[in-house]
């Protein structure tokens, strides 16, 4: 509150004699609230003057001069000195806390029109985002972007899979039979508690519970219609997880199918599923769902002619937002594609990128993007800066692009280089509205692929989309169709340790992010961005030794656990 009042005050009322003062002019500005007095100091600075602020709750007990120490740099000054900084290079100075951690609100916008409860996005990479990851991200309040290293119909069926689920994980639907079919073996149930009995249209007619089938001696020879419970209780697909769980408890059911408007089963929620979901820590924020109760999902596409046909399929399948996936988004191809998307699907938000400079960003904004993805060579698997000598330190890139994008109200995604909760805080406070993560989510249960053991550790494969292996798998068309027929990798193939479920570690991570916001005195993303742009937020560059000091040091052995 105090900071917001202060920022508003500053925006409205700059000290009149600011330019004439040399430096160290201090004095009380106003008693803005009962216990707080603010002091303002102006100082000459190249190229333009700025204002730094100090505040104290009980100024009478403090030395007047100490309140006015010029401490740290404003972002504007720090990022204009010709250095390319990344997250680890910079550190925020703490500010003032007047609210609890839980009061921090991380609601944000992915694009102009799409809002999220949490600022997290999974990267469109074939070892990060398929339907399981997208469902998990949306259930947490973020969003997943499905990769496109596959055929258009494969990518569309991933969208359909996300849209057809209500649980934050993908389980196999129960097997279904027609009314005249027999269930001749217990194996026909698979791991499901029932077999669905459906009409030819797919409409649910009833189900045969495993317990009923086991209790009947003639079950193997009877048609399913004689064994089924007709008109079984079901919930509509627009019913969210909590309401479905309540229904199960109220009706004392072990499981309940969810059906769409045509009566076709889209999911089956069991008591076990409810317990599993409830075992995960909860942040208490709404999932990312549309008006129809379905999870929202994004999809990546390229900028080639054939990508227009892919886009058509993705839109039909229900994609809620598209990401034009390129390492250097400021191209004639991307500008053409942005215009095509806006012309053909005016209701569909399009994210452009990747960009790292204000010039690149402005070009894509002029072309009509609804969101910008920022990062070139900053990803854990990226070799672009080594191979092409082009890119930018991620902290500088996020600050520069976000500063220009904010003028047009275009939200920014800080993509790549996220290795811990502190990096997320830095990305968001430097102006991003969301963070996109690859390696941070790879290795989780929800990432595609299977676990394997390497040197005694359980790991999952994680690879760059510009690695030779990924290019060979699906994107030959992208590369071999190019005028140059030689393939040069801009990414590597590696592995990431098993991290467990995103449903478990993301809530803890986001709580840590809230603690960072609290230390800065920012109760929301908007408040953080206001602090940044009003220069109240102060930063410094950390020397190499300061970075070492900021980490764990001087121990022979230790275990690092976040929760
Ligand atoms: N964020 C980053 O730092 C990087 C990301 N990547 C990832 O690797 C993957 C591949 O990235 P890129 O190679 O940049 O993909 P891209 O599809 O943008 O570009 C591949 C090549 O095709 C050309 N191209 C694109 N559209 C064209 C058209 N309509 N006509 C003719 N030529 C056209 C491009 O100029 C480029 O030479 C993406 O998933 C990207 O996210 C790769 C390198 C760096
Ligand atoms: O130079 C690159 N070569 C690649 O092969 C590659 N594949 C992905 N990406 C980008 O890296 C981001 C993920 O980075 P993190 O693992 O650090 O989260 C992703 O979100 C992408 O922006 C690549 N960059
Ligand atoms: K890198």
Automatic annotation (TrEMBL):
**Active site located where?**
382, 478
GO cellular component term of the entry, any: cytoplasm
Residues bound to NAD(+) are 325-327, 375-377
What cofactor is this protein dependent on? K(+)
GO:BP terms for this protein? GMP biosynthetic process; GTP biosynthetic process
Record GO terms (molecular function): IMP dehydrogenase activity; metal ion binding; nucleotide binding
Top-level taxon:
Eukaryota
Task: List its EC numbers.
Answer: 1.1.1.205
Q: In which pathway does it act?
A: Purine metabolism; XMP biosynthesis via de novo pathway; XMP from IMP: step 1/1
Notes on activation and inhibition: Mycophenolic acid (MPA) is a non-competitive inhibitor that prevents formation of the closed enzyme conformation by binding to the same site as the amobile flap. In contrast, mizoribine monophosphate (MZP) is a competitive inhibitor that induces the closed conformation. MPA is a potent inhibitor of mammalian IMPDHs but a poor inhibitor of the bacterial enzymes. MZP is a more potent inhibitor of bacterial IMPDH.
Q: What is its main location?
A: cytoplasm
Q: Which reaction does it catalyse?
A: IMP + NAD(+) + H2O = XMP + NADH + H(+)
Positions bound to IMP: 380, 415-417, 438-439, 462-466, 490
Enumerate the SUPFAM superfamilies for this protein: CBS-domain pair, Inosine monophosphate dehydrogenase (IMPDH)
Q: Which residues form the CBS domain?
A: 228-285
The kind of enzyme this is, by top-level EC class, is oxidoreductase
Alphabetically sorted, this entry's keywords are: CBS domain, Cytoplasm, GMP biosynthesis, Metal-binding, NAD, Oxidoreductase, Potassium, Purine biosynthesis
Pfam families on file: CBS (PF00571), IMPDH (PF00478)
Q: Which family does it belong to?
A: Belongs to the IMPDH/GMPR family.
What is the protein's known function? Catalyzes the conversion of inosine 5'-phosphate (IMP) to xanthosine 5'-phosphate (XMP), the first committed and rate-limiting step in the de novo synthesis of guanine nucleotides, and therefore plays an important role in the regulation of cell growth.
Could you identify this protein by its name? Inosine-5'-monophosphate dehydrogenase
Give the organism the record lists: Acorus gramineus (Dwarf sweet flag)
């Amino acid at each position: 509150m105090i900071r917001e009042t202060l920022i508003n005050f500053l925006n409205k009322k700059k000290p009149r004699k600011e330019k004439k003062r040399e430096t160290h002019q201090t004095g009380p500005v106003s008693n803005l609230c009962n216990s707080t007095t603010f002091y303002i100091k102006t100082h000459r600075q190249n190229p333009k003057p700025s204002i730094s602020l100090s505040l104290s709750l009980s100024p009478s007990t403090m030395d007047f001069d100490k309140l006015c120490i010029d401490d740290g740099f404003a972002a504007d000054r720090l990022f204009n000195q010709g250095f390319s900084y990344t997250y680890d290079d910079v550190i925020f100075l703490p500010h003032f806390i007047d609210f609890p951690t839980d009061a921090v609100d991380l609601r944000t916008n992915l694009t102009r029109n799409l809002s999220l409860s949490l600022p997290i996005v999974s990267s469109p990479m074939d070892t990060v985002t398929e339907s399981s990851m997208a469902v998990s991200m949306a259930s947490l309040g973020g969003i997943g972007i499905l990769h496109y290293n596959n055929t258009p119909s494969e990518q569309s069926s991933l969208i359909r899979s996300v849209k057809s689920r209500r649980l934050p994980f993908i389980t196999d639907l129960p097997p279904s039979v027609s009314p005249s079919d027999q269930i001749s073996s217990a194996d026909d149930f698979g791991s499901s508690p029932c077999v669905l009995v459906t009409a030819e249209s797919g409409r649910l007619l009833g189900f045969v519970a495993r317990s009923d089938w086991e209790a009947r001696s003639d079950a193997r020879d009877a048609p399913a219609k004689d064994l089924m419970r007709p008109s079984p209780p079901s919930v509509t697909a627009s019913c969210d997880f909590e309401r479905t769980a309540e229904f199960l408890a109220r009706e004392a059911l072990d499981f309940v199918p969810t059906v769409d408007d045509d009566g076709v089963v889209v999911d089956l929620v069991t008591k076990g599923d409810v317990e599993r979901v409830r075992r995960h820590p909860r942040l208490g924020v709404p999932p990312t769902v549309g008006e129809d109760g379905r999870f929202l999902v994004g999809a990546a596409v390229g900028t080639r002619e054939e990508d227009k046909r892919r886009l058509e399929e993705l839109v039909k399948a229900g994609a809620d937002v598209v990401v034009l996936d390129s390492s250097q988004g400021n191209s004639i191809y991307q500008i053409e594609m942005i215009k095509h998307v806006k012309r053909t699907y005016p209701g569909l938000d399009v994210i452009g990128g990747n960009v790292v400079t204000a010039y690149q960003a402005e070009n894509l904004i002029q072309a009509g993007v609804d969101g910008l993805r920022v990062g070139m060579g900053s990803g854990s698997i990226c070799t672009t800066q080594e191979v092409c000598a082009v890119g930018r330190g991620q902290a500088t890139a996020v600050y520069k692009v976000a500063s220009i994008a904010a003028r047009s109200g275009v939200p920014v995604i800080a993509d790549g280089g996220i290795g811990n909760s502190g990096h997320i805080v830095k990305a968001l406070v430097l102006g991003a509205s969301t963070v996109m993560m690859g390696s941070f989510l790879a290795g989780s249960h929800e990432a595609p692929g299977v676990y394997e053991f390497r040197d005694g550790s359980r790991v999952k494969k994680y690879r760059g989309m510009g690695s030779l292996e990924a290019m060979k798998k699906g994107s030959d068309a992208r590369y071999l169709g190019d005028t140059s027929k030689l393939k040069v990798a801009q990414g590597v193939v590696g592995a990431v340790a098993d991290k467990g479920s995103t449903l478990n570690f993301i809530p803890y991570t986001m709580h840590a992010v809230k603690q960072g916001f609290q230390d800065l005195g920012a109760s929301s993303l908007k408040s953080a961005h206001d602090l940044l742009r009003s220069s109240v937020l102060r930063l410094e560059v950390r020397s190499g030794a300061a970075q070492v000091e900021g980490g764990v040091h001087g121990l022979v052995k230790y275990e690092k656990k976040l929760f």
